[in-house]
Amino acid sequence: MSGALPGGAGSRLVGADADGDDQAVEAALRPKDLGEFVGQERVREQLDLVLKAARQRGGTADHVLLSGAPGLGKTTLSMIIAAEMGAPIRITSGPAIQHAGDLAAILSSLAEGEVLFLDEIHRMSRPAEEMLYMAMEDFRVDVIVGKGPGATAIPLELPPFTLVGATTRAGLLPPPLRDRFGFTGHMEFYAPAELERVIHRSARLLEVTIEPEGAAEIAGRSRGTPRIANRLLRRVRDYAQVKADGVITREIAGSALAVYDVDGRGLDRLDRAVLSALLKLFGGGPVGLSTLAVAVGEERETVEEVAEPFLVREGLLARTPRGRIGTPAAWEHLGLTPPQRGTGGGQSGLFEA
Fold first, then answer.
1. Is 149 helix (H, G, I), strand (E, B) or coil?
2. What is the rounded CA–CA span in Å between residue 336 and residue 316?
3. Considering 171, 186, 201, which residue would you say is the last residue of a domain?
4. What range(s) does the AAA+ ATPase domain occupy (predicted)?
5. Under DSSP, is residue 314 helix (H, G, I), strand (E, B) or coil?
6. Residues 215 and 273 in one domain
């Protein structure tokens, strides 16, 4: 059942996670300082004060926690923090640190003032997490030598450093870890006007000619996420290069994204398959998640974690105690007529999870 849907979770053009191609292109498109960074006005303003104050004191910046959905710029901001402080940056991730020794090896090799970027910090192992408490607060770790009754703890002093933690699930961070960050910034989804600025900037760097209406068309389908906007821009650029004169207009952008199954609201084939099954097969619900997943040929987790968040945020799908239901906006988006109350949806409550 996994991956049965073409264009599904494994290869989504509108997926917010970065693949190898995205990482390579993002490196060239990333802004180098806070002045170039588009959007997140409140976080930028607050972070600018934190960094300027640290530079004036001649010390390291406070530890920073950045939370928010994938693709909103957490990694980019971490690199900007290092650049603004004139410090090197070390990049790792929570899943890569499974033992306290892994973290101790990284911390002991940091230079004074270095920025340590820890992505998906909520997925770090508990022993490493507990070691990080002392490292963040006292710039010291205790390295355990030996086993059993003869084991001894050797204190290891660390140079002052700045930890930048990034998480998509801030609620999973334990309070003792969350409280040790001096600054916490939550990254919001971007407004279409902000995404247009991102697209125009990326188009200049990619040497692509794009009209304002073309940028607006791409921005409207980018799900509020700069990473998706840049990915769609690259695919539209390819279409414009092959099928037209290379200039991205509204018509070219619309035609290109139709080829890639991205509709006017940013829904792709998986999103529409979920909505279509919910409305056509189950009369708009309520229907259980497992039943809905079987209907679209995907795993339960794929529907719940990949498709549903955006559909809920767009007001097209709602989660209720009885199951998933389609909203009036979903019927309108798919051009369908909802059944009369007490007819089409009357039996839908029988579909269990």
1. helix
2. 13
3. 186
4. 60-193
5. coil
6. no
Task: Read off the DSSP letter of residue 351.
Answer: -
CATH of the domain at 333: 1.10.10.10
| pLDDT means over runs of 10, the chain (353 residues) | 42 66 72 88 93 92 92 92 93 88 88 93 88 88 68 80 92 88 93 94 92 94 93 93 90 93 90 92 89 90 88 91 91 86 47 45
Exposed, middle or buried by CB within 10 Å (0-12, 13-18, 19+), for 273?
Answer: buried
Say how far residue 189 (Cα) sits from the centre of its chain. 10
239 within domain boundaries: yes
pTM for this entry: 0.83
What's the one-letter identity of residue 188?
Answer: E
| Cα gap 281→276, rounded to integer Å | 8
Known binding residue 138? Answer is yes
Do 76 and 162 sit in the same domain of this protein? yes
Q: Quote the strand ranges of 227-332, DSSP E.
A: 317-320, 323-326
**237, two tokens:** 């650029």
Is 139 annotated among the ligand-binding residues? yes
Question: What is the C-alpha to C-alpha distance for residues 226 and 272, in angstroms, rounded to an integer?
Answer: 22
Residue 157: domain span? 40-186
Co-location of 86 and 204 in the same domain: no
Across the strands, what pairs with 325?
318
Instruction: Look up the CATH number of the domain holding residue 233.
Output: 1.10.8.60
Query: Are 180 and 48 part of one and the same domain?
Result: yes
Active centre residues (catalytic): 74-75, 119, 168, 227
- The pLDDT assigned to 29 comes to 84
Residues 169/68, Cβ–Cβ less than 8 Å: no
With a CB cutoff of 8 Å and minimum separation 6, the contacts of 107 are 116, 135, 141, 158, 161
| 133 annotated as belonging to a binding site for a ligand | no
Is 30 annotated as belonging to a binding site? yes
Does the annotation list 223 as a binding residue? no
In a domain, 275, yes or no: yes
> Is residue 75 marked as binding?
yes
